[in-house]
Amino acid sequence: MSRVLVIPDLHAPAIHPAAFDFVRSLQDEWQTDRTVFIGDAFDLHSVSYHAKESGLPSALQEVVEAKDQMQPFYNHFSSGRVDYMVGNHCALIMRKAVDACIPEEWIKPIKEIFGMPKNWKVHERYARCQIDGVQYLHGDSSPGGNTPALAHAVRAFQSTVIGHFHAAFGVNWYANDNMRVFGCNVGSLCDSSHLAQKYGRKYTKKPILGAAVVIDGSPYCEPLLLPNRGVR
Known about the structure:
By secondary structure, this protein is an alpha/beta fold. The chain has a single domain, classed as Purple Acid Phosphatase, chain A, domain 2. It contains five helices and eleven strands. The strands form two sheets. It has a six-stranded mixed β-sheet with strand order 4-3-2-1-10-11, with helices on one face. It is globular and about 55 Å long.
């Protein structure tokens, strides 16, 4: 059995300034021995399908800035078991290549593009990582709704942890006569004030900052409490 730290969407170079210290404190508090990055650690705004914001860097410069911002995570999680789930944003390079009919063989692997540590195991988009009977996936394959992780869990008949939905956070349960499963949404740890995140400002629901741990198959969500976003 494992003690899993689940790191939500980071969207470098738009990572929240408190994100790294927060996940490191959770690792220490819960004594986790395995880490899952649930996907979209990189935003890739410069090649996204959203409207581009003027004043943001070129694609090459954005990757440089994103890698710099990810360096504390790279250094800290450079050993042990680390799984990285490719999300819809970090898959943008391949998605654009498909649109342009560029063969997959001509594109560098995402691990090489972003300089991820050797011990990180990258799972392709829509893949499911299985740990202690729980499935981990980015979550952009639908369904959505108010409790998207639970919807995934019910469809799969398996407890599920997802990211992708920045405004969804927490654990929900479903049971019938034969089983009980949970859905765990892990929120995000990106800075919503960053220009690359401007596309989200039209939504009433706002990102919930936090992360999760799954201890021997049991989920716990930890919010990042900030002075201006306390509990009311």
